[in-house]
Design goal:
12 strands; four-stranded antiparallel beta sheet; alpha/beta; Alpha-Beta Plaits; 38% helix
């Protein structure tokens, strides 16, 4: 059946290139990806997928399903398609959307021989709001047997890990006063923020090496001669697991409370962005994908690099078996979030790898549907 998939892929190659290049040349920010959604869902509808819009209440999220009519596993492919401000698709999401949609269509062509169903999810705003978090919370992946996507990069690498992350905002409320003539009447909220930073810096010696704590002062006063009555800091807290992250967050919250006590300010804490779980790569699914890449001519697959970033696919990976490998589109160092990455997605090599990525995903989906590998 894999030879059959390869023949079908050749008939779709030009259309997949057109989809990737169209999205790449029409960049849209997160939750505004209307053109991308239209071209992807039109393609899926043309191949008889049942498409639903406004998934999880998100205007540019979608789900597309192709049912075989025979009981079996549910295989999902994840489309991303949001761009970055100013530089456009400097993270290659145009290719991700095309590869995942292509994999879904390819697998749908042979699914009556295996049973099961193919699901393609449109997951907007990966760079900002992380729609996968909301979609996971609403149970979209609870009954999915595996979820996959492949990301373009400089080199081809195995699926790896990411850090769990919480975006925490600290708001301190004090009292204004003239900073020169009567500062004793004031309560300096900015001093609390400064002590918060000092306390977190002191904590760094006592956390595990995977932990990252980095923040900014987002509000610090309005004039040097007024004691600031409002001050705000925003932090990203990260750790290798969500369990360790919870421990770190508790320590940081105590520091924040202490900083308020030191000045007499009051403290309010909230999350200003969605929280990301750590990515847990399924080793069986990852090994199958790697073998399929080799079968398709990608001989060098590097080990997954150590990652200190965070991705919203981590939340899905805590619900069902998941992979997030990289496919090389330059076979050289290529920095993400760059103009160089954006331009690399339009090259002849990227177009060749686009088809290979779609096929490798489809092959791995076939392995799951046919029972060649067992994930649970």
């Amino acid at each position: 059946m894999k030879q059959q998939l390869q023949k079908i892929a050749e008939t779709l190659k030009e259309q997949l290139i057109e989809i990737s290049d169209f999205i790449g040349k029409n960049p849209e920010l997160g939750n505004q990806e209307f053109k991308a959604v239209n071209v992807l869902t039109t393609f899926l509808k043309e191949h008889n997928f049942e498409v639903k819009s406004l998934v999880a209440g998100i205007e540019t999220a979608f789900s597309a399903v192709y049912e075989s009519g025979i009981p079996g596993p549910k295989v999902a492919f994840l489309c991303e398609y949001d761009a970055l401000p100013e530089i456009g698709h400097g993270c290659g999401h145009n290719m991700i959307g095309a590869m995942s949609a292509g994999a879904g269509v390819l697998l749908s062509k042979i699914i009556t021989e295996t049973g099961g169903s193919v699901h393609v999810f449109g997951t907007p705003a990966e760079e900002t709001n992380g729609a996968k978090v909301i979609m996971t919370e609403q149970g979209l992946f609870d009954e999915i047997d595996c979820a996959m996507m492949v990301h373009p990069g400089g080199f081809t690498t195995e699926s790896g890990t990411s850090l769990a992350m919480e975006a925490v905002q600290f708001d301190y409320k004090g009292k204004t006063a003239h900073a020169a003539s009567a500062p004793w009447y004031g309560v300096n909220a900015l001093n609390s923020v400064i002590q918060l930073f000092n306390g977190i810096d002191a904590l760094r010696q006592h956390v595990t090496p995977d932990v990252r704590m980095h923040g900014i002062i987002s509000k610090g006063g309005v004039a040097a001669n007024i004691v600031p009555d409002e001050a705000q800091a925003k932090f990203y807290l990260r750790a290798a697991t969500k369990e360790n992250l919870a421990v770190v967050k508790e320590k940081v919250l105590k520091i924040a409370e202490g900083a308020a006590l030191m000045t007499g300010a009051t403290l309010t804490v909230c999350n200003y962005e969605l929280s990301y779980d750590d990515l847990k790569t399924n080793p069986i699914l990852s090994a199958a994908f790697n073998e399929n890449m080799k079968e398709l001519g990608i001989d060098e697959i590097k080990p997954a690099p150590i990652s200190f970033g965070s991705v919203d696919i981590g939340n899905i990976s805590n619900v069902c078996p998941t992979i997030h490998p990289y496919i090389g589109i330059t076979d050289a160092v290529l920095n993400g979030h760059s103009v160089e990455m954006r331009e690399a997605t339009f090259t002849e090599l990227a177009h060749e790898r686009l088809l290979i990525g779609s096929l490798a995903l489809a092959y791995t989906g076939l392995d799951v549907l046919a029972g060649t590998i067992k994930l649970k």
